[in-house]
Each structure stands twice: as C-alpha cells, then as structure tokens.
Amino acid sequence: MTKVRQMTILALLAAISFLLMFALEFPLPFFPPYLKYDPSQVCGLLAAFSFGPSAGFLVELIKSILFFISGKSADGIVGATAALVAGASFVVVAGKLYHSSKGKSLAPGLLAGTLTMTVVMVIANYFVFLPLWGLPTSQIKMPLILAMLGFNLTKGVITSLLTLVIYKALQGKSILPSIEAQN
C-alpha cells in the first residue's frame, strides 16, 4: 500500500470519526446523562488494526482536536482531552495486541483495550477530569465511580462489537489492508 493511499485512508477515518462524535453523541440508558456514547472510536480502532497503534492514536488525536475546534464539546478542552485519553488508551492497547499477535484475532486486543480504557478513565476522571470540572475528589462517592466503571465497560463492549463487524466487512472488500498483506 502506498503512503499516499494510507494517508488518505487515515484522513478519511479521522474525518468520519469526528462526524460520528459530532452527530451521534448520546447518553446511554441507566447512566448519568453527562456520560455520552458515540461510535467514533471505531475509526481509531480500524486505523490501529490496519496500520498500527500510532495510526489509531493519530485518528483519535485529530478527532478530538476537530471536536474541540467545532465548539460542540460542552465541556471544552477538558471534555475533548477526556475523549482523547479514553480513545487513545483503547485504540493503542488494542492495536498493539493485535499487531503483536500477527493479526490472529481482534478479540484479545478489543478486550484488553476495553479494560484499559475503563481503568484509565476511572482513574483519570477521579484525579484529573472531575476536579477540573469543579468536583473535588473528596466529593466523588462510590455510586459515581461505579457509574464511570459501568459506562466505560459498556462503551467498550458496544464499540468492540461494532468494530468486529465493520472491520471484517471492510477487509473482505479489500478496503483496509490485513496484517498478512503488510508482511
């Protein structure tokens, strides 16, 4: 695959990721309304699986910058940064595991990425993001921690399932390269 084609695909994935976050952000039932889901991390995962973890990170970075610049991030730079931390922790870990296994299966990477994102976001929200939003750690109680835990696990599972379906469909159409094609 030529560098130009790879850069074009990554640019398209970043643009689609931004549009998904911009247009399809919504709260999930049973979680606080400020915890919103969007399927944009699917694009970061597609990039990480096809071109490596750094490509997935790049898609997540561009998406978060565009989302912040768009003005739609109700939480400004803190919200855009939280989205970047969540997306990056998910796609980098998933992409690294997938590539280290020589592309045998997406599932272990998706599982590890989901768990990593969940742990990272509970810790980052507790110590960084919630205090930046004006909620001191002394006021963060177990129900909120459990909500963050459940939300990120749910988000990871939904995103993983979407990614499995879309990656396999795109790979079958030779739109995205497989690891075997790169070696």
Quick synopsis:
The protein has 183 residues and is mainly α.
Describe this structure in words.
The structure is a single chain. The chain is mostly helical. It has a single domain (3-22, 37-177), classed as Arp2/3 complex 21 kDa subunit ARPC3, CATH 1.10.1760.20. It contains seven helices and two strands, in the order αββαααααα. The chain has a two-stranded antiparallel ribbon with strand order 1-2. The relative contact order is 0.13.
Gyration radius (Cα, Å) is: 16 Å
Number of helices: 7
Structural class: mainly alpha
CATH topology: Arp2/3 complex 21 kDa subunit ARPC3
Strand tally:
2
Order of helices and strands: HEEHHHHHH
Largest sheet: 2 strands, antiparallel
Net shape: globular
What is the level-2 CATH architecture name? Orthogonal Bundle
Unreliable spans are none
Task: Calculate the terminal CA-CA distance, rounded to whole Å.
Answer: 11 Å
Q: Percent helix among the residues?
A: over 70%
Strand fraction equals under 5%
- Count of domains: 1
Mean pLDDT: 90
Keyphrases for this structure?
single chain; 183 residues; mainly alpha; Arp2/3 complex 21 kDa subunit ARPC3; two-stranded antiparallel ribbon; globular
Blueprint of the fold:
Blueprint: H1 3-23, E1 26-27, E2 36-37, H2 41-51, H3 53-70, H4 76-100, H5 107-132, H6 142-172, H7 179-182
Helix pairs in contact: 1-2, 1-3, 2-3, 2-4, 2-6, 3-4, 4-5, 5-6
